[in-house]
TrEMBL record:
Its biological purpose: Plays a central role in 2-thiolation of mcm(5)S(2)U at tRNA wobble positions of tRNA(Lys), tRNA(Glu) and tRNA(Gln). Directly binds tRNAs and probably acts by catalyzing adenylation of tRNAs, an intermediate required for 2-thiolation. It is unclear whether it acts as a sulfurtransferase that transfers sulfur from thiocarboxylated URM1 onto the uridine of tRNAs at wobble position.
GO BP, one annotated term: tRNA wobble position uridine thiolation
GO molecular function, one term: transferase activity
Protein name (Swiss-Prot/TrEMBL): tRNA(Ile)-lysidine/2-thiocytidine synthase N-terminal domain-containing protein
InterPro entries: CTU1-like_ATP-bd, Rossmann-like_a/b/a_fold, TilS/TtcA_N, tRNA_thiolation_TtcA_Ctu1
GO annotations of cellular component type: cytosolic tRNA wobble base thiouridylase complex; mitochondrion
Pfam families in UniProt: ATP_bind_3
PANTHER family assigned to the protein according to its UniProt record, in alphabetical order: ATPASES OF THE PP SUPERFAMILY-RELATED, CYTOPLASMIC TRNA 2-THIOLATION PROTEIN 1
Length: 292
């Protein structure tokens, strides 16, 4: 049986099936398609302006490593004119962040963009390990998320950045939508899928990978042989997001476009007019059907 050819170029042997589109493609066509889709996301949503200084939130993981690679590549290819730098937050998690920072330092050399590291100890006077020792593991991810966002903001401001680019991917956005539904957090449903956030922060945050599937980011990193840190945070198993992540993966297995569908649903979410409150001590009567 002859090997399957790439559905795009029709010449090279297909090397993989894209999780997002189910296309059988060769490596080069996959790289081209993935990079072009990210470029279109950036252009169509006007994420950057020429001359802006952009902090790439770098953890050393697959998402931020691929983001640094892609941003460097597209900035040169399409003439974005961006001043890029890596911004890492050291939460002070022994056996995790200290190791991942070594990866980020290598990325600094590999991509030729400078690195700034800001630590919880430097900003707040304590590490995440010290916080967990006091509060336990139940809500530690909630605390860490708040502190990390503030640390990114403060670090970016110190470095005179105009924007922060994060590696949040389509799976992450879909998980956030699901979590807000489970929590009954209706006000956040209308904005949790926004590609530009940070209204309550000193700097805008942008998500160039908003429509990029996690599996495709992994494939891109694998076939490009990128240097990234793959160990999960030691406190992650205690996070509520893990349950949402498993549910989203089940949806994807049943229907690959389910991730995008969840995101689109949140994008299309709008508030209807609020009903006026009923007078105190009275019960609001149900509306009567209109007469034909």
């Amino acid at each position: 049986m002859a090997p399957k050819l790439c559905t795009r170029c029709q010449t090279a042997k297909a090397a993989l099936k894209r999780p997002k589109t189910q296309e059988q493609v060769c490596r080069e066509c996959f790289f081209t398609a993935f990079e072009e889709e990210v470029h279109q996301t950036i252009v169509q949503n006007k994420l950057f302006k020429h001359g802006e200084r952009v902090a790439i939130a770098a953890s050393g993981g697959k998402d931020s490593t691929v983001l640094a690679h892609i941003m460097t590549t597209l900035n040169a290819r399409h003439g974005y004119g961006l001043d890029l730098f890596l911004l890492s937050i050291d939460e002070g998690i022994t056996g995790y962040r200290d190791d991942s920072l070594e990866t980020v330092k290598r990325n600094e050399q590999q991509y030729g963009i400078p690195l700034t590291v800001v630590s919880y100890k430097q900003l707040y006077g304590w590490t995440m390990d010290e916080i967990v020792a006091q509060i336990g593991t139940k809500n530690n991810c909630t605390f860490c998320g708040v502190f990390r966002r503030q640390a990114l903001d403060r670090g970016a401001v110190l470095c005179a950045a105009n924007k922060i680019a994060t590696g949040h991917n389509a799976d992450d956005v879909a998980e956030t939508v699901l979590l807000n539904i489970l929590r009954g957090d209706v006000p956040r449903l209308g904005r949790c899928a926004s590609i530009i956030t940070g209204e309550d922060s000193p700097l805008p945050r942008v998500k160039p990978f908003k429509y990029a599937y996690e599996k495709e980011i992994v494939l891109y990193a694998y076939y490009k042989k990128l240097d990234y840190f793959s160990t999960e945070c030691i406190y992650a198993p205690f996070a509520a997001r893990g349950f949402a992540r498993e549910f989203i993966k089940d949806l994807e297995a049943a229907r690959p476009l389910a991730i995008i569908d969840v995101i689109r649903s949140a994008e299309d979410f709008t508030f209807g007019p609020l009903a006026p409150p009923a007078p105190a001590g009275t019960a609001q009567q149900p509306s009567q059907p209109s007469q034909p």
